[in-house]
Amino acid sequence: MISVSNAADAIIIEAFAKIPALLDHAPALIARGRFLDCECLLGPASHAFHVSIRQGRIVDLTPWPVLMRSWRFSYRASAAAFAEFWQPLPRPGFHDLLALTKRGEATLEGDMHPFMTHLQYFKDVLALPRLHFATAAS
Amino acid sequence: MSGMIEPIVGRYVHVDIDGDMHRIYFEENGSGIPLVCLHTAGSDGRQWRHLLADQEFAKHFRIIAFDMPWHGKSNPPENWDGTEYQLTTARYTQTIRAFCAALQLEKPAVMGCSIGGRIVLNLAIDHAAEFRALIGLEGADFQAPWYDTSWLNRPDVHGGEVCAALVSGLIAPQSPDSSRAETLWAYKQGGPGVFKGDLYFYRVDGDLRGKVERIDTKVCPLFLLTGEYDFSCTPEDTKRTAAAIAGASVTIMEQLGHFPMSENPKQFRRYIAPVLERIVALEAERAGRR
Description:
A: alpha+beta, about 20% strand, B: alpha/beta, Rossmann fold, about 35% helix
């Protein structure tokens, strides 16, 4: 698994925390998730977030762990993998959530049902920082 | 331009496949060497529309793309009782041979993508003398699975949405948005369980490891081309396969994924044109010897 420095790790965590605001400005994506209510764990493996989704909007994003809070599925990848995934033109193998799981850079666990019923939604939500990440990281 | 009519013509041919009559839809354009194109699992022949409409290629090739039974405009056979559709190696091989025989194609070249890329290897193993050349796109003797296919056909998950969402990641990020959307649209339109049934061949029945060594490229030339962004059939899978086949040509295509002909037709043309030129040259050499 590839690794990055702590400073780079902090940039990934910061970018992740901005996803709810980015989603708020993506009405078509919210509409695609309009039937989705879900608790899940998303983010860098070492600093994941508990994410609450209601009708396609992220209404809460809190650093994990949270005492006795349930979740249905988790998608966690190395910080370095997110850094690659968020490049404007990601390298082969780093361009898709399931490409990352296949190459061992990410893990997908728990009840797959909400993830699979809204697979393109989650792919697009987790790709939201791509537009801004390269600028922020440079 | 409004009113522009493409040169592609679509028709139906009745084909006896293992004793069952099928009404098979195919599209074609051009004249010359028959070139039969095989679509990917869960899609249909529309994937080939850019190649079919290419007037340069059509000068030398009769380009033909057909919809496999259960796909596109080729309905299931009339005697289908609703049992789960499942494509096997034998069934797929026989479908291609029966289609070529029904159209009375003389030693066609066959180009297939994904499952089509896998089956051309089986054609090369068992029926090489029937074909002029074989082209496998995104093909290998085996590739490691990366998802559970049971998600593709269950009543509590939208089949069209999940099929398209799964394969969306196989498209290169450089591919134009409109071509990406068109490629995924076919997956959203597939019949229930058809993509999953195709993958029975890919995942369970069609493991060709230990068999491709038997391919004799002197009997039929074999060209393998794989996109660098294909993480289903990776470039490493194709290179490993080609390394076991003496004389096989292998090309890794930049800025392309699992659906080269439909996700980025212009980029694909850069890679397929030299292959088709080579097949024309081989044909000229053959004619010179006669």
